Amino acid sequence: MPPRRNEASSTKFSLEEWRGHLGRKVSLRYKLRDDPKYPFTELVGVVQSVGHEDDGRVTIIDRNGRSHQVKVDDVVGAKLFPGAER
Fold first, then answer.
1. Which tens digits make up the pLDDT trace of 17-35?
2. 61 in Cβ contact with 46 (< 8 Å)
């Protein structure tokens, strides 16, 4: 039997909640806008920065050191990896 999923296992975060996760490792699934064949993609990395309300983006650094900016409105779900809590 697969492990039971709980409510906190995958969720959407507001900009304010993303700010509380700065420096945390996350996995997120988000919408792609220009590829109808592949409407979603996934990203694993560390939350580096969070934009302002008018920007609405979160910046994630992947394991290769590449920076990815994702609009918070495009995030379908996100998971926090276990680690040091703030």
1. 999 999 999 999 999 988 8
2. yes
